[in-house]
Fold:
Amino acid sequence: MRETNIPLYIRYIVTAILLTSFLFIGFFITNSNILGRAHNTLIIQIGFYIILSVSLNMVAGYLGQLPLGHAGFMAVGAYSASLFWRLGILPSFSNIIVGLIISGITAAIFGIIIGVPALRLKGDYLSIITLGFGEIIRVVINNLDNITYGARGLLNIPRYSTFTLVYICVIITIMVIHLIMKSKHGRAIIAIRDNEIAARSCGVNVIYYKVFTFAVSAFFAGIAGALMAGNQGILVPNNFDFMTSVNILMIVVLGGMGSMFGSVISSIVLISLPVFLQPLNEYRMIIYSLLLIVVMIFKPTGLMGSYEFSLTYFLEKIGIKRREENV
Amino acid sequence: MLFFSQLINGLQLGSIYALIALGYSMVYGIIRLLNFAHGDILMVGAYVALFSLTASFDPWLVITLTIITSTLLAIIIEKVTYTPLRNAPRLSVLITAIGVSILLQNLSQFFFGASGRPFPVHLLLEPTVFNFFGININNNSIITIIVTIVSMIVLTFIVKRTRLGKAMRAVSQDLDAARLMGVNVNNVVTFTFAVGASLAGIGSILYALRFPLISPNIGGILGLKAFVAAIVGGIGSIPGAMIGGYTIGILEVLVITFGLSGWTDGVVFLLLIIVLMFKPTGIMGKNIAEKV
Structure:
């Protein structure tokens, strides 16, 4: 950790001011309808894609495994939250919160269920087994006709996903994952990525941390799924197919494996680009897949690598100089 | 009687899976690359067959053209995308393979349209039904099963009896040692891709005979299930890929016979998970100790 002479409370105050001002700007923009409905939906969509990509990045970038079933966790979260919300047993606000927590916990339980057998495997086999689980979840949802309404779609989901809710969820996700990665648990996860055998011989409980990472990642994927359900108002199992997982993976890879900042930026760019480049929409997937291949060949760590944006560093750059003896 | 006709049905489906699984298995066995684009090469092959048939080419010419196109496509993919990544981390190679797969799907969607096109089976083969002791068998089932068995015999011959086959086995055991012994690794890898893709080319025609509706996304799930077949049978083993393919094919037909057609994909992946949990090397696979 680098030394800095900016006091902790100043850094916290600056962060808090920035976060709240973003919240108010976003709230103002979405509520006054300057941009129109389509763009409001887009902003919310960017929000849950940030949660998805940051949570996938935790497994793909930090743990160094490549799960291809992220959409499965999303589906679990989306369906459990929507089914709970539709019951409407609690008053509005607590209904939203409890629904979100339920979605996260259900998805995390599935993450553990999938994580435990997947542990015996690594690399390509782990990717395939998670892909298989993702597909199984989709098939099961498709066939549980009397609960999920199968391919006809789950309708009349209350549209709870306002900008404020999504924004707060994004902040919480990024904060929690950032704090985990800065703690001793995070260092253990990175140690597993760098060399599993060495990590194990240093006393890192590899099995525990793998399941833990899977569960946290699934928890947030579930919440993102719930937010997506609250945004669309309708769910069909095909929202959660293999291509959805690949889309999230694309965001993570292009942003940078192991860079949360990269995931956020690339979610914003890749999700909003098709809207602003309407004429190019037909070529969108062609361009993205070409980009994916080219990036993998020339910069395998992704565009941002493992770069993280640091507010402290930024503050120092714009004027508050470090003292010489600290360098 | 129903049992036997369903068995033939399952064998036909299994043959198609086995042909594709052989391609996966060989490539994975040699450079540990899960070639996600393999199913999509089959899809492109099916389109080539479809267009050349509608242009009323001779059936043999159609078959040759399909096989040549898929082989060339695979060689180009291998040279352009996989060769620069030969020494890259496995994760990047896997992501690249996924990228190639999406690229092929979207290019086909762009050029040929997203909706399915009917495959003119009658131009290739007049459908006839044989009657063996009261069991009705389509001629395309018989052709599919025979072609697959012949391909497997030819492939086994190539791998066991030719110089290139010997080189392939050497590379799959130890790439660097094979290179030191004077094996041209790049050529061997390209050759493996070519052989796998030509099998996919044959598979594309057999697939079109069985499911005469071609769309850009047929390769995705078909390829995944074929890869499941390769893992179930034991990756890197030719008879393993066949056994895996037939297992998956017969299993799917059984599930459909029991009236659970919505669950087929789920059951196939469940089988994969069971196999990976209890015998990760597959039915015919050898146990390989992990190197520290």
Remarks:
- Chain B has one domain: 2-278.
- The radius of gyration of chain B is 19 Å.
